[in-house]
Amino acid sequence: MSLAGVETFEVTYAYYLGDNETKLNAQQVALRYAEREALERAGVFIESITIVQDYELTKDEIKAYTAGLVELVNQSGEWNIEGANFVYNLTARFRIDTDDVARQIERIRGSRELENQLMETQKETEHLYAELERVQAEQKIIVSNAIRATQLYYAVEEIIRNDKYQNAERALSMSREAFDLQPYNSICWNQLARTYVFLCESPLNSKTEKDIIREIWLEAKSTDDVGLWDVLGEFMIFWDIGIFSSSSSESLRDIGYNGTSRELCIYSLERVLNLISKNYSVYDIRGIIYDLNMVYREVGNYERIIELASLSLNEGAETSSFYIQAAYGNIAKAYINLGIYDKALKYAYEGKDADLNAGGFYQDDWDYLIEDIKSRM
Fold it and tell me: Crossing angle of helices 302-314/322-338, nearest 10°?
């Protein structure tokens, strides 16, 4: 009934780790893909056995009958980084026994019910693989975009670092392209804001700071894009419009905003905080809170500083980052300004402990703050 024999073959597959996907899940999915390719390879071999030719089986029928008979012999894999993504490269070895296939075909062909069930299962499996392939194709586009955005990022940094003002417009164009390729990447937001500042510094620039504010604000207002709101807020901070300078209290009515520069800066960053989702990192959220608290400190809104800095502390258990220590310091100083010294002292001590966990680089500063609070009590 068959040409007895065992076929072994090796399959390689590269799987791109998706957003919010665990490495274990990625390894399991990669193996499913490898098994599918092994099934295709086995089908070519199985076509030659007599029973397949006698029944004149189609390729889909061959795959259905041999599913479950392709045996995994061994596998090995390693994680690599490609652009901004993790890629799992799997190598797997499989075997199939034609005698097993012949027995499977004989058993199923003898039962119309089993044959129908098997073909239905095969259709469902193919639908699942098609969906997985769609997701992988999307992931590869994300990887490609990330690679291009990274190249643009470093090209822009090179222009800014070397004060190549003659290339300021080109830098802005490249930075905006990177932003559009990765609209949810806060690093791209930050660079675009800094590139607008670089453009303002250029002696060849014909745009005023209000021209740029109007440009970003109108687009952010029409799209309600979280990244654009962040670019607007960060630009106003970097260019010293939204916080300390005399222009921070100037009206922006002439560009269509009914408020001051400082108020627009606050509005923009608060909008970012409202729009940002859990898909963003804790580090991103804490960075936005840090920027907001710089502005609120200038306007004397100490209650909001305490509220935001407390949110920053509650975003995760990690306690060693710069933003965590800044949050403790902001809360302590806000309570000082409110005259609530016992709470100010509590957060100052907690901030000192957090700094110690991070290496203790600012212990003297925390000691100075603690002594200052004690002297007021």
Answer: 150
Provide, for the chain, the percentages of residues in helix, strand and coil under a 3-state DSSP scheme, each rounded to the nearest 5: 70, 10, 20
Contact 53, 112 (CB under 8 A): no
Give the per-residue pLDDT at 192. 96
- Distance set, CA 296 to CA 243, 267, 291, 301, 349 (Å): 9, 11, 9, 5, 23
Q: What is the rounded CA–CA span in Å between residue 190 and residue 167?
A: 19
Give the C-alpha separation, 360 to 358, whole Å.
6
Q: How many CB atoms lie within 10 A of CB 303?
A: 11
CA-wise closest residue to 184 among 135, 153, 142, 238? 142
pTM for this prediction:
0.68
Question: Of 272, 284, 277, whose CA–CA distance to 321 is shortest?
Answer: 284
Structure tokens at 61: 């029928």
Sequence-ordered list of residues with C-beta below 8 angstroms from that of 51, at least 6 positions apart, any chain: 1, 2, 101, 102, 105, 106
pLDDT in tens, 173-182: 999 999 999 8
6-16 and 85-97 strand pairing: antiparallel
Cβ neighbors of 157 (< 8 A, separation 6 or more) are 191
